[in-house]
Amino acid sequence: MTDVVFVLVPQLHLLDLAGAAQVFSTASDESVPGGPRYRLRYVADEAEVPTAQGVALRADTEWPRLGPGDLVMVPGWRSPGTAGGPRLSESLARRVREHHAEGGTVASVCSGAFALGQAGLLEGRRCTTHHDLQDELARRHPGATVVRDVLYTVDDRVVTSAGIASGIDLALHLLAVRHGPAAAARVARDMVVYARRNGHEPQASAMLRHRSHLSDAVHRVQDRIDADYAAPLRLAELAASSGLAERTLTRRFGEATGMTPLRYQSLLRLERAEHLIGQGATVESAARAVGFSDARMLRRLRAAGRAQVG
Predict the structure, then answer these.
(1) Among positive and negative, which fits the CA dihedral 181, 184, 186, 189?
(2) Structural domain 2-190, CATH architecture
Protein backbone atom coordinates (compact mmCIF):
# COMPACT_ATOMS: atom_id res chain seq x y z
CA MET A 1 0.00 0.00 0.00
CA THR A 2 1.42 3.36 -1.07
CA ASP A 3 0.37 6.54 0.70
CA VAL A 4 -0.31 9.68 -1.34
CA VAL A 5 -0.43 12.70 0.94
CA PHE A 6 -2.07 15.84 -0.44
CA VAL A 7 -0.98 18.98 1.39
CA LEU A 8 -3.93 21.37 1.34
CA VAL A 9 -3.46 25.14 1.36
CA PRO A 10 -6.40 27.57 1.82
CA GLN A 11 -8.02 28.66 -1.47
CA LEU A 12 -6.71 25.60 -3.30
CA HIS A 13 -8.25 24.80 -6.68
CA LEU A 14 -10.51 21.75 -6.59
CA LEU A 15 -9.36 20.39 -9.95
CA ASP A 16 -5.70 20.71 -8.99
CA LEU A 17 -6.52 18.29 -6.19
CA ALA A 18 -9.28 16.17 -7.69
CA GLY A 19 -7.58 15.39 -11.01
CA ALA A 20 -4.51 13.80 -9.43
CA ALA A 21 -6.51 12.22 -6.61
CA GLN A 22 -8.85 10.60 -9.13
CA VAL A 23 -5.90 8.99 -10.94
CA PHE A 24 -4.63 7.26 -7.81
CA SER A 25 -8.14 6.43 -6.63
CA THR A 26 -9.01 4.85 -9.98
CA ALA A 27 -5.74 2.91 -9.96
CA SER A 28 -6.73 1.46 -6.59
CA ASP A 29 -10.26 0.57 -7.64
CA GLU A 30 -11.05 -3.04 -6.80
CA SER A 31 -12.53 -3.48 -10.29
CA VAL A 32 -9.02 -3.19 -11.77
CA PRO A 33 -7.52 -6.69 -11.33
CA GLY A 34 -3.96 -6.71 -10.09
CA GLY A 35 -3.90 -2.94 -9.93
CA PRO A 36 -1.67 -0.96 -7.57
CA ARG A 37 -3.01 0.05 -4.18
CA TYR A 38 -2.94 3.65 -3.02
CA ARG A 39 -4.20 5.19 0.20
CA LEU A 40 -5.10 8.86 -0.18
CA ARG A 41 -4.50 11.18 2.76
CA TYR A 42 -5.18 14.89 3.14
CA VAL A 43 -3.30 17.08 5.61
CA ALA A 44 -3.51 20.76 6.47
CA ASP A 45 -2.85 23.18 9.30
CA GLU A 46 -6.57 23.40 10.06
CA ALA A 47 -9.20 20.67 9.92
CA GLU A 48 -11.36 22.69 7.53
CA VAL A 49 -9.80 24.07 4.36
CA PRO A 50 -11.65 26.62 2.18
CA THR A 51 -11.25 26.19 -1.58
CA ALA A 52 -11.22 28.73 -4.39
CA GLN A 53 -14.50 27.28 -5.62
CA GLY A 54 -16.29 27.80 -2.30
CA VAL A 55 -16.46 24.19 -1.08
CA ALA A 56 -14.82 23.51 2.27
CA LEU A 57 -12.72 20.34 2.60
CA ARG A 58 -11.89 18.29 5.68
CA ALA A 59 -8.30 17.32 6.37
CA ASP A 60 -6.14 15.71 9.03
CA THR A 61 -3.89 17.99 11.06
CA GLU A 62 -1.43 15.23 11.98
CA TRP A 63 1.30 14.30 9.49
CA PRO A 64 1.29 10.52 8.81
CA ARG A 65 4.34 8.30 9.03
CA LEU A 66 5.72 7.94 5.50
CA GLY A 67 8.37 5.86 3.76
CA PRO A 68 10.53 6.56 0.69
CA GLY A 69 7.98 4.86 -1.57
CA ASP A 70 5.20 7.23 -0.56
CA LEU A 71 4.28 10.41 -2.40
CA VAL A 72 3.58 13.97 -1.22
CA MET A 73 1.67 16.31 -3.53
CA VAL A 74 0.82 20.01 -3.18
CA PRO A 75 -2.17 21.17 -5.28
CA GLY A 76 -2.19 24.78 -6.43
CA TRP A 77 -4.28 27.60 -5.08
CA ARG A 78 -5.81 30.87 -6.19
CA SER A 79 -3.05 33.43 -5.91
CA PRO A 80 -3.16 36.43 -8.27
CA GLY A 81 0.52 37.01 -8.96
CA THR A 82 1.11 34.88 -5.83
CA ALA A 83 1.87 38.13 -3.97
CA GLY A 84 0.45 37.93 -0.49
CA GLY A 85 -1.20 34.63 -1.32
CA PRO A 86 -1.42 31.59 0.95
CA ARG A 87 1.77 29.79 1.98
CA LEU A 88 2.67 26.55 3.66
CA SER A 89 3.21 26.85 7.37
CA GLU A 90 6.81 26.33 8.43
CA SER A 91 5.76 23.01 9.95
CA LEU A 92 4.27 21.69 6.69
CA ALA A 93 7.18 23.04 4.64
CA ARG A 94 9.58 21.17 6.92
CA ARG A 95 7.58 17.95 6.55
CA VAL A 96 7.65 18.22 2.76
CA ARG A 97 11.40 18.91 2.79
CA GLU A 98 12.09 16.00 5.16
CA HIS A 99 10.10 13.55 3.05
CA HIS A 100 12.30 14.36 0.05
CA ALA A 101 15.48 14.19 2.14
CA GLU A 102 14.45 10.70 3.27
CA GLY A 103 14.21 9.49 -0.33
CA GLY A 104 10.57 10.25 -1.06
CA THR A 105 9.03 11.94 -4.10
CA VAL A 106 7.31 15.32 -3.85
CA ALA A 107 5.13 16.84 -6.55
CA SER A 108 3.15 19.99 -7.20
CA VAL A 109 0.31 21.11 -9.44
CA CYS A 110 0.18 24.69 -10.77
CA SER A 111 1.03 27.25 -8.07
CA GLY A 112 1.90 24.40 -5.72
CA ALA A 113 5.41 24.82 -7.15
CA PHE A 114 5.75 27.90 -4.92
CA ALA A 115 5.24 25.65 -1.91
CA LEU A 116 8.07 23.40 -3.06
CA GLY A 117 10.19 26.52 -3.49
CA GLN A 118 9.30 27.58 0.03
CA ALA A 119 10.45 24.15 1.21
CA GLY A 120 13.81 24.75 -0.49
CA LEU A 121 13.34 22.02 -3.11
CA LEU A 122 13.62 24.04 -6.34
CA GLU A 123 17.18 25.31 -5.92
CA GLY A 124 19.35 23.92 -8.71
CA ARG A 125 16.48 21.94 -10.19
CA ARG A 126 14.25 22.13 -13.26
CA CYS A 127 10.64 23.02 -12.55
CA THR A 128 7.51 24.46 -14.14
CA THR A 129 4.14 25.93 -13.26
CA HIS A 130 1.15 27.57 -14.91
CA HIS A 131 2.25 29.79 -17.80
CA ASP A 132 0.84 32.89 -16.10
CA LEU A 133 3.01 32.26 -13.03
CA GLN A 134 6.33 31.28 -14.59
CA ASP A 135 7.89 34.74 -14.46
CA GLU A 136 7.03 35.11 -10.79
CA LEU A 137 8.39 31.65 -9.97
CA ALA A 138 11.66 32.48 -11.73
CA ARG A 139 11.87 35.83 -9.91
CA ARG A 140 11.35 34.27 -6.50
CA HIS A 141 13.68 31.34 -7.11
CA PRO A 142 16.57 32.49 -9.31
CA GLY A 143 18.49 29.33 -8.46
CA ALA A 144 15.83 27.19 -10.16
CA THR A 145 15.55 26.53 -13.89
CA VAL A 146 11.95 27.32 -14.82
CA VAL A 147 11.06 25.34 -17.94
CA ARG A 148 8.39 27.15 -19.92
CA ASP A 149 5.49 25.76 -21.91
CA VAL A 150 5.74 22.13 -20.81
CA LEU A 151 3.20 20.01 -18.94
CA TYR A 152 5.50 18.73 -16.21
CA THR A 153 9.14 18.33 -15.21
CA VAL A 154 10.95 15.67 -13.20
CA ASP A 155 14.24 16.40 -11.44
CA ASP A 156 15.65 14.29 -8.60
CA ARG A 157 12.25 13.21 -7.20
CA VAL A 158 10.89 16.76 -7.45
CA VAL A 159 8.01 16.75 -9.92
CA THR A 160 6.22 19.94 -10.93
CA SER A 161 3.34 20.42 -13.35
CA ALA A 162 1.60 23.24 -15.15
CA GLY A 163 -1.91 24.51 -14.50
CA ILE A 164 -5.04 22.76 -13.30
CA ALA A 165 -5.74 19.72 -15.54
CA SER A 166 -2.03 18.97 -16.06
CA GLY A 167 -2.13 17.40 -12.60
CA ILE A 168 -3.85 14.46 -14.30
CA ASP A 169 -0.93 14.14 -16.74
CA LEU A 170 1.54 14.34 -13.86
CA ALA A 171 -0.28 11.66 -11.85
CA LEU A 172 -0.56 9.35 -14.88
CA HIS A 173 3.19 9.78 -15.45
CA LEU A 174 3.95 8.84 -11.85
CA LEU A 175 1.69 5.82 -12.21
CA ALA A 176 3.44 4.78 -15.43
CA VAL A 177 6.89 5.10 -13.81
CA ARG A 178 5.86 3.00 -10.84
CA HIS A 179 3.64 0.40 -12.48
CA GLY A 180 4.23 0.60 -16.23
CA PRO A 181 2.57 2.40 -19.17
CA ALA A 182 -0.17 -0.24 -19.44
CA ALA A 183 -1.41 0.52 -15.93
CA ALA A 184 -1.44 4.26 -16.69
CA ALA A 185 -3.25 3.65 -19.99
CA ARG A 186 -5.86 1.54 -18.22
CA VAL A 187 -6.53 4.31 -15.71
CA ALA A 188 -6.64 6.98 -18.44
CA ARG A 189 -9.18 4.92 -20.36
CA ASP A 190 -11.29 4.39 -17.26
CA MET A 191 -11.24 8.15 -16.60
CA VAL A 192 -12.11 8.86 -20.27
CA VAL A 193 -8.90 10.85 -20.67
CA TYR A 194 -8.20 11.37 -24.37
CA ALA A 195 -4.51 10.48 -24.13
CA ARG A 196 -1.69 10.35 -21.61
CA ARG A 197 0.46 13.32 -22.58
CA ASN A 198 4.22 13.50 -22.23
CA GLY A 199 5.77 16.14 -20.02
CA HIS A 200 7.44 18.03 -22.86
CA GLU A 201 4.15 18.67 -24.66
CA PRO A 202 3.03 22.35 -24.73
CA GLN A 203 0.65 23.68 -22.09
CA ALA A 204 -1.62 25.28 -24.71
CA SER A 205 -2.51 23.33 -27.86
CA ALA A 206 -2.65 24.92 -31.28
CA MET A 207 -6.43 24.83 -30.93
CA LEU A 208 -6.19 27.12 -27.91
CA ARG A 209 -3.31 29.36 -28.96
CA HIS A 210 -5.23 30.71 -31.96
CA ARG A 211 -8.69 31.08 -30.39
CA SER A 212 -8.41 34.42 -28.61
CA HIS A 213 -10.07 36.39 -31.41
CA LEU A 214 -13.74 37.47 -31.58
CA SER A 215 -14.72 36.41 -35.11
CA ASP A 216 -17.63 33.96 -35.00
CA ALA A 217 -17.14 33.06 -38.65
CA VAL A 218 -13.50 32.16 -38.12
CA HIS A 219 -14.35 30.17 -34.99
CA ARG A 220 -16.84 28.14 -37.06
CA VAL A 221 -14.14 27.39 -39.62
CA GLN A 222 -11.71 26.40 -36.86
CA ASP A 223 -14.37 24.08 -35.42
CA ARG A 224 -14.64 22.44 -38.83
CA ILE A 225 -10.87 22.06 -39.18
CA ASP A 226 -10.48 20.83 -35.58
CA ALA A 227 -13.04 18.08 -36.20
CA ASP A 228 -11.54 16.88 -39.51
CA TYR A 229 -7.90 18.02 -39.47
CA ALA A 230 -6.73 14.70 -40.97
CA ALA A 231 -9.07 14.98 -43.96
CA PRO A 232 -8.42 16.98 -47.16
CA LEU A 233 -10.44 20.16 -46.69
CA ARG A 234 -11.06 22.46 -49.64
CA LEU A 235 -11.30 26.20 -49.11
CA ALA A 236 -14.76 26.15 -50.73
CA GLU A 237 -16.00 23.75 -48.04
CA LEU A 238 -14.62 25.92 -45.27
CA ALA A 239 -16.07 29.07 -46.79
CA ALA A 240 -19.49 27.40 -46.98
CA SER A 241 -19.32 26.52 -43.27
CA SER A 242 -18.54 30.15 -42.44
CA GLY A 243 -21.07 31.79 -44.72
CA LEU A 244 -18.29 33.87 -46.31
CA ALA A 245 -16.81 34.06 -49.78
CA GLU A 246 -13.46 32.28 -50.13
CA ARG A 247 -11.40 35.46 -50.46
CA THR A 248 -13.22 37.08 -47.54
CA LEU A 249 -12.66 33.99 -45.38
CA THR A 250 -8.94 33.91 -46.19
CA ARG A 251 -8.60 37.59 -45.28
CA ARG A 252 -10.59 37.35 -42.03
CA PHE A 253 -8.87 34.10 -41.00
CA GLY A 254 -5.51 35.78 -41.47
CA GLU A 255 -6.57 38.84 -39.50
CA ALA A 256 -7.86 36.68 -36.62
CA THR A 257 -5.11 34.04 -36.43
CA GLY A 258 -2.15 35.36 -38.41
CA MET A 259 -2.21 32.43 -40.82
CA THR A 260 -4.22 30.75 -43.58
CA PRO A 261 -6.73 27.95 -42.93
CA LEU A 262 -4.33 25.48 -44.57
CA ARG A 263 -1.49 26.56 -42.28
CA TYR A 264 -3.75 26.18 -39.26
CA GLN A 265 -4.69 22.66 -40.37
CA SER A 266 -1.00 21.81 -40.83
CA LEU A 267 -0.25 23.00 -37.29
CA LEU A 268 -2.94 20.72 -35.89
CA ARG A 269 -1.57 17.81 -37.89
CA LEU A 270 1.97 18.52 -36.74
CA GLU A 271 0.98 18.77 -33.09
CA ARG A 272 -0.93 15.49 -33.20
CA ALA A 273 1.92 13.80 -35.09
CA GLU A 274 4.42 14.96 -32.45
CA HIS A 275 2.22 13.42 -29.78
CA LEU A 276 2.07 10.09 -31.65
CA ILE A 277 5.84 10.08 -32.17
CA GLY A 278 6.32 10.80 -28.47
CA GLN A 279 4.19 7.71 -27.76
CA GLY A 280 6.46 5.53 -29.93
CA ALA A 281 5.01 5.84 -33.44
CA THR A 282 7.34 6.12 -36.42
CA VAL A 283 7.42 9.33 -38.44
CA GLU A 284 5.88 7.45 -41.37
CA SER A 285 2.95 6.01 -39.40
CA ALA A 286 2.33 9.32 -37.62
CA ALA A 287 2.28 11.16 -40.95
CA ARG A 288 -0.34 8.76 -42.34
CA ALA A 289 -2.44 8.94 -39.17
CA VAL A 290 -2.75 12.74 -39.30
CA GLY A 291 -3.47 12.99 -43.00
CA PHE A 292 -0.15 13.65 -44.73
CA SER A 293 0.22 11.70 -47.96
CA ASP A 294 3.82 10.83 -47.03
CA ALA A 295 6.35 11.63 -44.33
CA ARG A 296 8.30 14.26 -46.27
CA MET A 297 5.93 17.10 -45.42
CA LEU A 298 5.90 16.09 -41.74
CA ARG A 299 9.70 16.02 -41.66
CA ARG A 300 9.86 19.49 -43.24
CA LEU A 301 7.38 20.91 -40.72
CA ARG A 302 9.24 19.36 -37.79
CA ALA A 303 12.56 20.71 -39.07
CA ALA A 304 11.06 24.18 -39.52
CA GLY A 305 9.67 24.09 -36.00
CA ARG A 306 13.04 23.10 -34.51
CA ALA A 307 14.74 25.86 -36.49
CA GLN A 308 12.33 28.44 -35.06
CA VAL A 309 12.98 27.24 -31.53
CA GLY A 310 16.74 27.31 -32.17
Answers:
(1) negative
(2) 3-Layer(aba) Sandwich (3.40)
